[in-house]
């Protein structure tokens, strides 16, 4: 299954190099993912190609105008070959949105069509969000200067979950957050470097012990660094047990 991203932005040039490298670049070359960047300014009608205006009610900064955004979204939706069930996931990147995490990445990795809209300045005229039925997603509790980097974060996080995108099929299910815990420490050769040693258990060849050590390291790290993840995990697990009864 391939995924198509349509990304509406005022800076399409930001995507070409970042999305042409590494796992995303490879997925695009092999046809697993398609990334189409649309320049919002192509949908303006005045000679200044203006996409923003001052906010009603006053205040600092500028707000995205509805007309070019509606036109750009409608153009994208009419160009994309529709799926049998008509499903398109429409996302606006803003700090006000649902906070991105690995379960949301997994959910999005099931989609075949994703349209993203990258914001700037003070945000969007609210009618864009209401009228176009977009969901708002934030990549974290901080403010960036625009939605382009967050859109790239989403593309990267989604593409690497697609079957066939990573070299090893198990890679993405074993890493941090997938089981509600952080990843265990990894080592490679040499067995000793500048007096720092690889833990003996990893050199032992005993796979059961290695598994147990890794599980324990994951839990310890998570407890030390991210106690909130363990609380969520416990809640989910006890919730699941209640559901079963
Ligand atoms: N635009 C600016 N900051 C953002 C954030 N944290 N997440 C998503 N989009 C944004």
Summary tags:
binds adenine; alpha/beta; 9 helices; 2 domains; Trp Operon Repressor, Chain A; two-stranded antiparallel sheet; Alpha/beta knot
Overall description:
The protein has 245 residues and is an alpha/beta fold. The chain folds into two domains: 3-159, SPOUT methyltransferase, trefoil knot domain (Alpha/beta knot, 3-Layer(aba) Sandwich); 176-244, tRNA(m1g37)methyltransferase, domain 2 (Trp Operon Repressor, Chain A), CATH 1.10.1270. It is 39% helix and 18% strand. It has helices at residues 13-18, 22-29, 66-79, 102-108, 126-132, 148-159, 200-203, 207-225, 227-244; strands at 3-9, 33-39, 52-53, 63-64, 89-99, 113-118, 135-138, 192-193, 196-197. The strands form three sheets. The chain has a five-stranded parallel sheet, with helices on both faces. Helix 8 (207-225) packs across helix 9 (227-244). The radius of gyration is 22 Å and the shape is elongated. 23% of the residues are buried. Bound molecules: adenine. Adenine binds next to strand 5. Adenine is lined by residues 93-95, 119, 138-140, 142-144, 147, 150.
């Amino acid at each position: 299954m391939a995924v198509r991203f349509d990304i509406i932005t005022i800076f399409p040039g930001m995507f070409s190099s970042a999305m042409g490298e590494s796992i995303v670049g490879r997925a695009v070359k092999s046809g697993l993912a398609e990334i189409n960047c649309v320049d919002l300014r192509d949908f303006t009608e005045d000679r200044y190609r203006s996409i923003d205006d001052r906010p009603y009610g006053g205040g600092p900064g500028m707000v995205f105008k509805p007309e070019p955004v509606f036109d750009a979204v409608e153009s994208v939706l009419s160009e994309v070959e529709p799926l049998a069930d008509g499903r398109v996931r429409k996302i606006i990147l803003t700090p006000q949105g649902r906070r991105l995490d690995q379960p949301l990445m997994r959910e999005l990795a099931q989609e075949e069509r994703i349209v993203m809209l990258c914001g700037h300045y003070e945000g969007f005229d609210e009618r864009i969000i209401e009228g176009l039925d977009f969901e708002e997603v934030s990549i974290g509790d901080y403010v960036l200067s625009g939605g382009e980097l967050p859109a790239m974060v989403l593309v990267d996080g989604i593409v690497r979950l697609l079957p066939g995108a990573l070299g090893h099929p198990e890679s993405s299910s074993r890493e941090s957050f997938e089981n509600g815990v952080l990843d265990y420490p990894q080592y490679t050769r040499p067995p000793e470097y500048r007096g720092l040693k690889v833990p003996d258990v990893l050199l032992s060849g005993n796979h059961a012990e290695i598994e147990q050590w890794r599980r324990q390291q994951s839990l310890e790290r998570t407890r030390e660094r991210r106690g909130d993840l363990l609380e969520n995990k416990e809640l989910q697990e006890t919730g699941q047990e209640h559901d079963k009864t």
